[in-house]
């Protein structure tokens, strides 16, 4: 995905656009650019490869005055990172400029047709066709036509997804934005207006926002804004207030957002639980579910849909739901569900898990589920995101903005919410009030217990330094901690670029153990749970072949230090909740190895925070 920020108002646009790009850089960071309409009506158009810093340096040498413009930071889909492929893209006359997030699926056909009409292309991207389509549409709408008329006409030809911002030197004081499946929201200031890919670019300027929905277009001028639908009819939109504060998008003394967000786990747990525990009844208070008790009482099959870390949270959720509520559950990659949905009926509940609420595969999978008339529930962190607004029911994480590309606090929050959902369904069925109370009481202890794990960060830092030179790792876990092993491997892979594989411990003997040689490192999750003895056997099997083992074990367990090379401890907790604690040492382990290796932890190569393209 990419990041778009645009501004129109009374202040100089450039500082606002640059600051917005820095806030959005986690969305994509292989190239960046701006187009600002300066006071004499020309457009200052500067682009560069690399990070926003590179762009800022260039603009310091070539400043552009002007009070409206657009800016973009890119995550390449079509065309390698280069200046020519960086956004904004221009038309043949260098007078229309477009920043785009999404994929134009029929761009090859459109480009061929435009080239036949004499349009000259300067890039390899799909996005550039938008600039030329608008250029052509301006001719069609004629001198009486407006920029927004031309944008609407151009978008009629587009198949695929877009969030776009458009300015033109021939249409002063007008900014046109539009969206289909790629997020775009308006910021309503005092005599100034913004449009951005997400709220992190707006929080410093305004809390008043308007979420655009699919196939909507907005025209912004210094005097106001208007939103229209695909038939060009004005649409009344609700102005909503952003929560959170600018501090949420600062590192607050940490070296990286990821480190800050790992240390937010206790607060994130409090926010996920707050107001959602009914102790007397031994159940959870979840308004989205409470409003659909009758429908949900018929559910006999649950399908979790998600990608990446959120998929691993779904694997934990499956175990929770099946243990507490006895409802068969499965976890399906959203990217697979879209093309091969399992049998569905009205007794199936589809649960989308997504931190960003904008993952294209998960969004499309939810839409596919709705086409099958299946009830849908979304567990989402970003308020007002597309998945949150399109699912039939929703539960927010309230974890605050997660800026680090590697998801950490969101995973912890997802597990806490999933445990509440499992208790809720369980108490609708055969879960006893005492068992419900036991789980909820322990859940409320976890913020404190997470603080205890985090207090050992320096010890894990020392441990991690001893593993930082290895290029291959296994992460192993059983039952509730098998998904945590998968998540631990992903964390290490995506920020340190070391190769890591997560396995169910029992699977080791069926092939992977062939890779164990002297010193081969494995991280084994071995808390004091129902499968602890089996986890100890796994450690023995690894040690017997010369492997090096870091075990995650329950504090007070002195035995495990006699067989593992290193041990990271967590406080005792219920097995069903143990992933919330066992994952924290793995997050820190990955973080410190990546730091030792000098990696770009918050913006790892090739990645983006939310994959809004398919
Ligand atoms: C996790 O560290 C990764 N950044 C990635 O796997 C992420 O979890 C996945 O893209 C899903 O994102 P979502 O939760 O925003 O849908």
UniProtKB/TrEMBL annotation:
InterPro entries: GATase_2_dom, GFAT, GFAT_N, GlmS/AgaS_SIS, GlmS/FrlB_SIS, Ntn_hydrolases_N, SIS_dom, SIS_dom_sf. Residues 2-223 form the Glutamine amidotransferase type-2 domain. It is found in: Cytoplasm. Its EC number is 2.6.1.16. One of its GO terms (molecular function) is carbohydrate derivative binding. It is an enzyme of class 2 (transferase). Residues 292-431, 463-604 form the SIS domain. Its main location: cytoplasm. It holds the Pfam family GATase_6. GO terms for cellular component: cytosol. Keywords: Aminotransferase, Cytoplasm, Glutamine amidotransferase, Repeat, Transferase. The keyword Cytoplasm applies. GO terms for biological process: amino sugar biosynthetic process; carbohydrate metabolic process; fructose 6-phosphate metabolic process; protein N-linked glycosylation; UDP-N-acetylglucosamine metabolic process. Gene3D superfamilies: Glucose-6-phosphate isomerase like protein, domain 1, Glutamine Phosphoribosylpyrophosphate, subunit 1, domain 1. The active site is at 2 (nucleophile), 609 (for fru-6p isomerization activity). It catalyses: D-fructose 6-phosphate + L-glutamine = D-glucosamine 6-phosphate + L-glutamate. Homodimer. Catalyzes the first step in hexosamine metabolism, converting fructose-6P into glucosamine-6P using glutamine as a nitrogen source. This is Glutamine--fructose-6-phosphate aminotransferase [isomerizing].
